[in-house]
Amino acid sequence: MNNLDLLTAITVFVLSVLVGVEVISKVPATLHTPLMSGSNSVHGIVVIGAMLIAAESHTWLGYVLAFAAMVFGAMNVVGGYVVTDRMLEMFKARPATGKSTSDAREKAEV
């Protein structure tokens, strides 16, 4: 890799970070959880890419970077599914406590 290729790769990386930060900062809080659950596929692709890098790497730096990418990608995948599960739990019906709402209103009036 010559200096021009390295400079191009660094430029693309920096621009993608800046665009990513700008896009994510504009997401309202009510959309954060659905977007988080939808991003699991993106993080799965990161894990697969890290595995491909590890397979092609022949230096210790490549192995370390691939391992770090796999760990962080896997953490994001698992975290996304945990958040999605918690989000879906909010929409389940709660079990009845045995008291009707009219009993609760009568107690409140007394």
TrEMBL record:
Pfam assignment, any one: PNTB_4TM
Subcellular location: Cell inner membrane
Enzyme Commission code(s) on record: 7.1.1.1
InterPro entries assigned: NADP_transhyd_a_C
Membrane topology: Multi-pass membrane protein
Assigned keywords, A-Z: Cell inner membrane, Cell membrane, Membrane, NAD, NADP, Translocase, Transmembrane, Transmembrane helix
Protein task: The transhydrogenation between NADH and NADP is coupled to respiration and ATP hydrolysis and functions as a proton pump across the membrane.
Protein name according to UniProt: proton-translocating NAD(P)(+) transhydrogenase
